[in-house]
Specification:
250 residues; 6 strands; single chain; elongated; two-stranded antiparallel ribbon; four-stranded antiparallel sheet; alpha+beta; 11 helices
Length: 250
């Protein structure tokens, strides 16, 4: 796959140097400081996980905000209600919030806080009434120890917790396209093992499935022809690859 390697080298776009990525980090790094979370963003996988973590924390704060508002609305008669009545009324509002929030499905279960453990997910989804108690209310400000997922997973990509768009799942891992860097990534064990810059890609994600199939068959010439026909690579590399393929015909 020597020709594809040349395209990878010449058309490469470094994700962490993209303006949109720098802006996202700057606008959201306050979450790390607020919750005292240690995360260094040094490679692409770190950034994609950071996106997931930020969305997890946004969902967390949405649940908490919902509880506070519901509690304030019921403050005049809160003490007259028993636990089950409080829980039922709080959950009516929580269910409305859940309709607006992204989630992932893991082991056939919806998780709105995919970076956090199952117990915390269960509390936020169904038992926010417990936040009346001090030992639970502290989770609003101290949740670092509740984070048990420390890397990107396929379901986070599949359910749009990152800027990545899932293109294909194969026997070794999964493929995802990032519009921020115009790059198609191949993940194995949730780590990027290959990346393919598609600097002029403007098609639908399902179009990438055909190219991935050709690549997995190691049909380099067909891969290059598809790049050229679809106009996915730079004009410079398009001209260069076109000349190489024409020479091969002779």
């Amino acid at each position: 796959m020597e020709l594809i390697k040349k395209i990878q080298k010449k058309d490469e776009i470094k994700l962490l140097k993209c303006d949109a990525v720098k802006r996202f980090i700057k606008e959201n790094e306050h979450y790390l400081k607020r919750y005292h979370i240690d995360l260094s963003i040094k490679k692409e996988e770190d950034f994609f996980y950071f996106e997931c973590l930020v969305q997890t924390l946004k969902n967390k704060e949405a649940f908490e905000g919902c509880f506070v508002k519901s509690y304030d609305d019921m403050i005049d008669y809160w003490q007259t209600l028993n636990y089950e009545e409080r829980k039922r009324l709080i959950n009516i509002d929580i269910d409305r919030i859940k309709e607006k929030l992204p989630f992932v499905v893991r082991d056939q279960q919806k998780l709105y806080l995919p970076c956090m453990n199952e117990r915390i997910n269960a509390i936020y989804e169904n038992e926010m009434v417990l936040f009346e108690l001090k030992q639970y209310n502290r989770l609003r400000f101290d949740c670092k120890d509740m984070i048990d997922q420390h890397h990107l997973t396929c379901e986070m990509v599949s359910f749009h917790f990152t800027s990545l768009e899932l293109a294909e799942i194969d026997e070794n891992g999964y493929w995802a396209y990032c519009p921020l860097s115009s790059t198609l990534y191949h993940f194995v064990d949730d780590v990027i093992c290959e990346s393919f810059p598609l600097v002029r890609f403007q098609g639908e994600i399902n179009e990438l499935e055909d190219w991935i199939s050709l690549y997995l068959k190691e049909d380099e010439e067909a891969c290059i022809r598809m790049f050229i026909e679809k106009g996915w690579i730079s004009e410079k590399m398009t001209r260069k690859m076109t000349k190489i393929l024409e020479r091969r015909k002779k």
